[in-house]
């Protein structure tokens, strides 16, 4: 096996890459061989990075609902097996490919599924955080350089990539556009900064960047998983006066209160539509509603919960195709607006390093989101926790 990342007494990290640079590494990975089949933790081969690619020693990774739906193969068009899932992680750069200028060996980094090349018209625009070449693409399963995978089984069979990242492995190879360099003084916080790779940035950013929640405003969050609670945390940090949480699992309410939720609604408690109850609580509707469940009926309720005249609904839930918006065009003439948000509107390489500092300084309380920690070998247990609604974020220690 190749060289390992080492945590010292202060939990900072270092890496000796002299033995592995430019070579194929043999290391552990959790490989999915079919929809919903248990992950197989086994030795695989990881090739060196090619032009504008980076190879990262993963130190911590966590599990998101997007990993769960991808592993289950809920969208048949996106299925590809065998595959290495995972897209929330942190680690240290083992080596870089030709042409990589902004990332160096030994840098502490987080991979991101929604990249930023910095050169395309999208990246140069202040109106979007999308990237023309390296934006989120669930259909992509190989590297763009040559259309092949950097992973293979011990007997040489290709293993597919996932969401520009593939972090359920000791070493991964990603495009340099999908790597965010953090300042070395944050190395002691890498474990919790793992969460800014996806869920926390997506939720907090939706409140800050997409909606621009203001002090004294009212907010409704539909779905109190990690992303929904990150929305609540972002709204709390912005000074929202009323944050209404909606979920059918009452066990989530105690945790949600610590994230800033002020009022709770369980749709199953009474037959009245949720939006009617929210209008009563908020005095006519909320300024901002966030749909984090990936359910069209929930989206409809979120939209109707927004205040006529100015209410904004932000879509964060992942919806399967070919379902369409449950909204009549004339309903938009009431002044309500609706918009989608990808990665919380953050431009990853440009804005995430500052966001990481804000998190470590306590503006966003990352510790509240880590509900479990397990060794990497227990990844199937971690997925069981998430499937059964018992886990918010489970950190897997590599």
TrEMBL record:
Keywords: Metal-binding, NAD, Oxidoreductase, Zinc. One of its GO terms (biological process) is formaldehyde catabolic process. GO terms for molecular function: alcohol dehydrogenase (NAD+) activity; S-(hydroxymethyl)glutathione dehydrogenase [NAD(P)+] activity; zinc ion binding. It is an enzyme of class 1 (oxidoreductase). The keyword Acyltransferase does not apply. Its cofactor is Zn(2+). It catalyses: a primary alcohol + NAD(+) = an aldehyde + NADH + H(+); a secondary alcohol + NAD(+) = a ketone + NADH + H(+). Pfam families: ADH_N (PF08240), ADH_zinc_N (PF00107). Residues 226-345 form the Alcohol dehydrogenase-like C-terminal domain. Its EC number is 1.1.1.1. Residues 53-182 form the Alcohol dehydrogenase-like N-terminal domain. The keyword Calcium does not apply. GO terms for cellular component: cytosol. Belongs to the zinc-containing alcohol dehydrogenase family. Class-III subfamily. Homodimer. This is alcohol dehydrogenase. The lineage of its organism: Eukaryota, Viridiplantae, Streptophyta, Embryophyta, Tracheophyta.
